[in-house]
Design goal:
By secondary structure, the protein is mostly beta strands. The protein has no helices and eleven strands. Strands 2, 4, 5, 6, 9, 10 and 11 form a seven-stranded mixed sheet that branches. Strands 1-3-8-7 form a four-stranded antiparallel sheet, with no helix packed on it.
Length: 123
C-alpha cells in the first residue's frame, strides 16, 4: 500500500511558476510509474504528465505545450511537477498517482492516489 501526499499548491498570478511535490511512503517508490492529473470545478479529471519507474521516460499532455515538466527523485521517494507560465485555465486540484504501467493517461491504470493540492491562477 502506497500513501501519497501532495504539496506546493497555492495562489499565483498568470505567468508565474509553481513546483508541486508528491511524497510517497509505505511502498517501494521506485517500482511504480507515476502520474499527475488535475480536476477543475465541474470538469472531469484529466491527465497532466507521466514518468517511468526509473525516471528515464516521461511526457506531458500535448495541450500543455511544454509548460509542465514531471520528474522524480527515487532516493527521496518524491515526485515533482514543475509548472511554468501558468494560465488561469490551469486552476484545478492536482493529484499524483502511482501505478504499475508507465505512460497511461487513463486514471484507471493508477492504483494509488493522493488527496490533491489546490492550484489557483489569477489573471
Amino acid at each position: 500500500q502506497v500513501q501519497l501526499v501532495e504539496s506546493g499548491g497555492g495562489l499565483v498570478q498568470s505567468g508565474e511558476s509553481l513546483r508541486l511535490s508528491c511524497a510517497a511512503s509505505g511502498g517501494t517508490f521506485s517500482t511504480y510509474a507515476m502520474g499527475w492529473f488535475r480536476q477543475a470545478p465541474g470538469k472531469e479529471r484529466e491527465f497532466v504528465a507521466a514518468i517511468s519507474q526509473n525516471g528515464v521516460n516521461a511526457y506531458s499532455a500535448g495541450s500543455l505545450k511544454g509548460r509542465f515538466t514531471i520528474s522524480r527523485d527515487n532516493a527521496e521517494n518524491t515526485l515533482y511537477l514543475q509548472m511554468n507560465s501558468l494560465e488561469t485555465g490551469d486552476t484545478a486540484v492536482y493529484y499524483c498517482a502511482a501505478g504499475k504501467v508507465y505512460g497511461s493517461s487513463w486514471n484507471g491504470d493508477y492504483d494509488y492516489w493522493g488527496q490533491g493540492t489546490q492550484v489557483t491562477v489569477s489573471s
